[in-house]
């Protein structure tokens, strides 16, 4: 099995996925190797990537909170935060962050406080209101999004870990954005990938993983072989077994071509 992060790993700065990467994925599938997309994105943001790489198999979304069947466009499993847990987490984060603003990615769509400033206009309709009011219908919170304008994501993550130890899982996926993402306790890319692999009779030793950010760290540590993309976060590089060339230079594709050639020569 090949498990790969998207943004900064195979998705380039202009939002595209190269033809070389798509060809490498197709070559993997031809020899019976599953390719699994493992991302912080919600399922509805997968369209362009799936168009480029093939609408085949399973995607693990929301940092592992959602198991999504790509071919049928169905959510197979969701590990969500209960409304009470969201409010408790927000209360705890307010004690260690200077001016946090909150949003929630849910099974029903994206919702945010008025103070939460979005960075990209996706054209989606958004529910805006006080955090408690956004949760009254228990929409299935896949992850919380926490912004603290002017702060640093690594500083935010370290602070969040001091107050969320064991109750929820904070991480971040962009070293240039003042954003931390919070999932339910036990949720990670690694946990979701381990469950998916086990269901297919595979172990960590059968998995090659690629990533570039703190939300990839556990997955990179778990996989039998792992590669951090050059130019990513130092934590990802420290967790991986080896380095891949940069995303903009088709690093994942180049590694997969090498591994497939090694397999063919055995």
Can you describe this structure?
Helices cover 30% and strands 23% of the residues. Strand 13 (225-229), helix 7 (234-239) and strand 14 (242-244) form a beta-alpha-beta unit. It has 266 residues and is of the alpha/beta class. Strands 5-4-3-2-1-12-13-14 form an eight-stranded mixed β-sheet. The protein is globular, with a radius of gyration of 18 Å. The model has no long low-confidence stretch (mean pLDDT 95). The longest helix is centred in the last third of the chain and has 15 residues, at 251-265. The chain contains eight helices and 14 strands. Helix 1 packs parallel to helix 8 (251-265).
Architecture blueprint of SSEs:
Elements: E1 2-4, H1 19-30, E2 35-38, H2 47-53, E3 58-61, E4 66-69, E5 74-78, H3 83-94, E6 101-106, E7 109-112, E8 127-128, E9 141-147, H4 153-163, E10 168-171, E11 179-184, H5 189-199, E12 208-211, H6 217-222, E13 225-229, H7 234-239, E14 242-244, H8 251-265
Parallel strand pairs: 1-2, 1-12, 2-3, 7-8, 12-13, 13-14
Antiparallel strand pairs: 3-4, 4-5, 6-7, 6-9, 9-11, 10-11
Helix pairs in contact: 1-8
> Using DSSP, what is the number of strands?
14
Biggest sheet strand order reads 5-4-3-2-1-12-13-14
Strand % is: 15-25%
Structural class designation: alpha/beta
Overall, the morphology is globular
H/E series: EHEHEEEHEEEEHEEHEHEHEH
Distance between the termini: 18 Å
